[in-house]
What we know:
Elements: H1 3-19, E1 22-27, H2 33-43, E2 47-52, H3 54-63, E3 77-82, H4 86-99, E4 104-110, E5 113-115, H5 117-124, H6 129-163, H7 184-200
Amino acid sequence: xxxxxxxxxxxxxxxxxxxxxxxxxxxxxxxxxxxxxxxxxxxxxxxxxxxxxxxxxxxxxxxxxxxxxxxxxxxxxxxxxxxxxxxxxxxxxxxxxxxxxxxxxxxxxxxxxxxxxxxxxxxxxxxxxxxxxxxxxxxxxxxxxxxxxxxxxxxxxxxxxxxxxxxxxxxxxxxxxxxxxxxxxxxxxxxxxxxxxxxxxxxxxxxxxxxx
Length: 212
């Protein structure tokens, strides 16, 4: 490769490293041209899968601030630069490997950190962002529906309470007052005088009759 071509290749890969949401490194030894096309198709338009030269890739990674060890760039290498959902891309890459064991996944860069092959496999088993968002939306929808039902129940209860007739107030017992008329007044006074005379009269002493 001529020097200008090398410089252009390094510049392009440097930009790919910088703009990628994730980067997965693979070894494609033994894969046919047809298999490579199938792999690119399975990864989708948002993932750029490129066969690369190890030396130039290491320079580009360094320019982008990515530190790649030499063992990651050994043998015939190809790099998947992901621009879309990193988990979806990892899952598609893993699924392709199941059907094409010759593809070797060496690891990669995810969220700015290096991940091993084992960590890559765990990442591929996660649910995608779209699925997680759908679940979150479903949970929120369920919570909102429950809140709406609760508010409706409270509103109906309040309307029922406000529309119910008021309970009758118990009437207080009527106490009949005794009215002393002018005619009854003299009689009462007479009774009082008789009672007073009886009190003032001397009590007769009992005469003791001697026994015969």
